[in-house]
Amino acid sequence: MNKAHKNLFFLYLILALSIIFTGSSGLTSQPAPVPDETAQPAYGDALIAGSIGEPSVLVPMLAGDSASHDVAGLVFNGLVKYDTDLSVIGELAESWNISPDGLVITFNLKKGVRWTDGVEFTADDVMFGYKTIIDEKTPTPYKEDYLQVKKAEVLDRYTFRVTYGKPFAPALTTWGNLVVLPKHLLEGKDITKTDFTRRPVGTGMYILNKWTSGQEVLLDSLIQKLPSSSHLCN
Questions:
Q1: Model confidence over 39-80: pLDDT tens digits?
Q2: Is the separation of the CB atoms in 157 and 123 below 8 Å?
Q3: Among 50, 134, 143, 210, who pairs with 218 as Cys (CB 3.0-4.6 Å)?
Q4: Alpha carbon of 96 to those of 132, 164, 227: distances in Å?
Q5: Are 220 and 234 in contact (CB under 8 A)?
């Protein structure tokens, strides 16, 4: 076989092999099933989650450990919270206005929100929580953020305003669930000496059913809750 014929032979061989491999890889794939857009979410059932430890208290401003925060965060709401894309959105606050210099924040609260004992949530509860967290008798690791506030005001039943003495970068986000407490239940009491730390009343998506020390904390989901319905019973 001369050199020209040899080159032609290898060319045909390569072409034949490429056809074989192309044919073997050309299997028809099955299309993914189309989701049923009419399907409805299932309600009921239960979610069981493990914890690294037992909660110490179920009040966010007193909680210094993650186990306590994980549970308390389901019971209480804040004025604002982080969305899934880390943008700040309202929770108990319908909206808010920030002054051009960034020193004044005015929160417009949602109307008709109720604590789980049926009493309506108002700006007085925010003011009460603020005064509690800055009280020197309150053992909280979060006090410093709220000491940056120069003045806090209840303008009306659904409007709460804070004024800072100087720019404070996390000012808006500090008004999460750390600082909202039911005034009608705790006014005039030492929060650390009441059973509220183990039997909290919040505005959140869950209510405490049972706390068995060393075993479990059982929460029940609520039918009417903020900000949206849950698909779990507990």
A1: 666 666 666 666 667 777 889 999 988 888 788 888 999 999
A2: yes
A3: 210
A4: 23, 15, 17
A5: yes
Q: 116: closest CA among 184, 22, 42?
A: 184
Asked if the peptide bond before residue 41 counts as cis, ω within 30 degrees of 0, the response is no
Give the DSSP letter of residue 48.
-
Q: How far is CA 27 from CA 15, 31, 158, in A?
A: 20, 12, 65
Rounded to whole angstroms, the Cα distance separating 88 from 176 reads: 10
Domains and CATH numbers, the chain: 79-196 (3.90.76.10)
8 A C-beta contact, residue 86 and residue 135 = no
Q: Is the pTM of this model over 0.90?
A: no
Amino acid in position 211: W
CB 64 within 8 A of CB 81: no
CA 157 vs. chain centroid, Å, equals 25
Distances (CA, A) of 101 to 104, 138, 168: 8, 31, 11
Give CA–CA dist 11/13, Å, rounded: 5
